[in-house]
Amino acid sequence: MIFATWLAVWLGSLLCWGLTIEARNPRVAVCIQGQIRRWLPQFILPNLIESNPDIDLVFFVNLQYPTKSQGSHYSTLSHLTLSPSNVSQATFESSLSQVHEQWTTNHSSIGQIAFHNPYSREYFQEKFQTTRLAVIEQYETIQHLILNMYSHQERCIAQLQEYEIDIFQNKYNSTVESSASNTSKHFDYVLSLREDIYFFRPLVLRTVIDQYLLNPRGTALQDSVGRGQKRDVGCHIVQKNCLRWRGINLRGQLMSREHALVFMGQRLSYYNQGVQTHQEILNPEGWELKQLHDLHLHACDVPVDLFPVTVARNLPGGKHCFIPFEIMHKCIPRGMHQEINALDCQKVLRETSNSNKGKM
């Protein structure tokens, strides 16, 4: 009897949640984090804002200032001669103003754009009471930079919760919406993106939400932490179906707000657990999968045709290119292989160098 009553209440709350979302546009908090000199904001307007007129988007951007000790702002193929983002150069103020102008529409706005001085290795060693930062063993030398990224994600979660209080609750407290379900005062989903995100084609969030989050389907991500068996379960988090590196893809992740609060909002405390128990996980992708596993959450693969994201690198003159493994055959949407492969960074830089030599 007690279980039946509980089940009825739970199902009722889910029904109210679904009706509340249906009664208005879904609200998506977009968390963008990374380094300021890798930020490529120009791809957001045409590929995320304009392609989702039926989604209310609020952007929370947290970027790290460069430090003098950082020789390169990329950990992979760092020898390539690339250019810092236009936003991080002399035109910073005008570029930032343009971002505000472009990202502010009738269904999108900026919750916060914040820039932070990076925490040092010593800061994290003291915070976690350890002399060695090596939970993510592949990147021990730049572990503090990875932890800075995760601190940005925690900041985003705090910022979106503050926004919910300031805007959704206080602003609408005297409106009809205040009498609706409590979920109407919160975001519905969180989209986490790297600062150098690139879209092969426009991302339509409604399609992904309807097919994978509201009505979960597909095969759950193979669990590289457990026995390696695939499990047919619902989708708590979705990602594109390649470049997982035995973990989960870090370029873009879409999840419900509730799952984001624990998954993104508790990064550093979870890392501290790894320090205290002397864990070592190969890479960030595997470390995030282990966190997901420990939270009893499951990630589902979305075809790159539906979740067409990758990361790009900036070139002089406002152009961009891709490092080779980002554009492996299965990671490019259908019909775009020739166009994208022509933008291989090594190929583009080699052709540019040969062209310059020919002019001498």
Mean pLDDT: 82
Helix content: 25-40%
Largest sheet: spatial strand order: 3-2-1-4-7-6-8
Structural class: alpha/beta
Radius of gyration: 21 Å
Distance between the termini: 86 Å
Number of strands: 11
Shape: globular
What is the N-to-C succession of helices and strands? HEHEHEHHEEHEEHHHEEEEHH
| Number of helical elements | 11
User: How much of the residues is beta strand, in percent?
Assistant: 15-25%
Q: Which residue ranges are poorly predicted, with pLDDT under 50 across at least 5 consecutive positions?
A: 2-19, 177-183, 218-232
Largest sheet: 7 strands, mixed
State the gist of this model.
By secondary structure, the protein is an alpha/beta fold. The chain is built from 11 helices and 11 strands.
Describe the structure.
This protein has 360 residues and is an alpha/beta fold. It contains 11 helices and 11 strands. It has helices at 2-22, 44-49, 92-103, 121-127, 143-169, 205-214, 257-263, 267-276, 284-294, 337-341, 345-359; strands at 27-35, 56-64, 108-116, 189-194, 197-199, 237-240, 252-256, 299-302, 309-311, 313-314, 320-321. A hairpin with a 5-residue loop joins strand 10 (313-314) and strand 11 (320-321). It is globular. Residues 2-19, 177-183 and 218-232 have low confidence and may be disordered.
Task: Provide keyphrases for this structure.
11 helices, two-stranded antiparallel sheet, disordered N terminus, single chain, seven-stranded mixed sheet, 360 residues, alpha/beta, globular, 16% strand, 11 strands
